[in-house]
Amino acid sequence: MTPSQIISLARDLFLVAAIGWLAWFVYHAGQNAEIKRDLAALQKQLAVNAQKQAQWAQEARDAEAQRVADMQGVAAAILDQHRPLIVRVPTSGGAVPAGPAPPAGGTACAGRAAEGSGRDLDVRAAVNGFELKYEGYLAACRSVLAQWPQ
Cα(43)–Cα(51) distance, rounded to whole angstroms? Predict the structure, then answer.
């Protein structure tokens, strides 16, 4: 081999190596650019998700504060009811039996509680407890619905 052939061979090997390295660099640089775009999009999505999560947390705090305020108002209104609710509880006899039918074939009158038979019972406390319990459930339901993401 002559020196000019050796130089030509070395130059050709160098060119082939340079073209191979350039192809490898372009391929990997393209992959890195795609990864960078994906990472930028991912960071943008994470920022949007964090913003939504903060908004939902604020909505949950607002809903809980509204529930507490509702319960305080409802409890005050319910506990402010002092007028008694009287229920007459019959004694052991129950209702008076119906009278006999009239002779003309009419119907007998229905039985009713005898005058003075029974005792009065104030059920205001039980009714207030019932209202307070179920208003609490309704306030909790409204709170859950208010926390629901818009």
Answer: 12
Tell me how many degrees the CA angle 58-133-149 measures, rounded to the nearest 5. Answer: 25
Instruction: Return d(Cα 145, Cα 139) in angstroms, integer.
Output: 10
- Give me the amino acid identity at 54: A
Type of residue at 47: A
Residue 101 near residue 61 (C-beta atoms within 8 A): no
Domain residues of the chain, as ranges? 3-93+116-147
pLDDT in tens, 27-38: 877 777 788 889
| Report field, pTM of the whole predicted structure over 0.85 | no
- Strand stretches in the chain, DSSP E: 86-89, 119-122
